[in-house]
Design goal:
The protein is α+β, with helices and mostly antiparallel strands. It has a single domain (2-148), classed as NADH Oxidase. Helix content is 35%, strand content 17%. A three-stranded antiparallel beta sheet has the order 1-2-5, with helices on both faces. A hairpin with a 5-residue loop joins strand 3 and strand 4.
């Protein structure tokens, strides 16, 4: 597992990244990857047995997801409170991958994206965490005006049925 991370001033973040975060002074930008060995193991598993490959894929997804949770927990504990993770393709546009990878100089470290903003190695996640927020707030810059918003967002408030 390789984790690239950088703490920076929110004002130094590109527009969409900065606008999405709740009120904070700093942010943690990160990429976590299981590396090219995980991709090779998946290719090998798919060549042998689809069911074993699906199981391996699931385990690898869980591992990278847990790494992101750990990054967020460490940020919350050690950096004065933190929001949950804002992920490209979730709270952020998928194209935000480009900005995050650039901020981390990730290509030099073996993490990059294709034309569709899909990450390579495939078991890689990027994200941004607002630092110095109280209570792990997930109030995006929109202020939760969800009824007015057409964007997909895991923070979106929906009515319960």
């Amino acid at each position: 597992m390789k984790i690239l991370r950088r703490v920076m001033e929110k004002s130094a973040l590109p527009g969409e990244l900065a606008r999405t975060l709740p009120d904070c002074a700093k942010a943690l930008v990160f990429a976590a990857t299981l590396g090219h060995a995980a991709d090779a193991a998946l290719r090998s598993a798919f060549a042998k047995s689809a069911s074993e490959a699906v199981e391996l894929d699931s385990r690898l997804n869980l591992r990278i997801s847990r790494a992101c949770s750990q990054i967020q927990e460490e940020a919350a504990a050690g950096l004065g409170g933190a929001s949950p993770v804002f992920f490209p393709g979730g709270e952020l546009p998928l194209a935000a991958q480009s900005a995050i990878l650039s901020l981390l100089n990730a290509r030099r470290r073996g993490v990059y994206e294709n034309e569709a903003h899909m990450l390579l190695p495939s078991k890689t996640l990027t994200g941004v965490i607002a630092l110095g927020v109280s209570g792990g707030a997930r109030a995006p810059a929109c202020g939760f005006r969800c009824a007015e918003c057409a964007k997909p967002c895991s923070a979106k408030i929906t009515e319960e049925l």
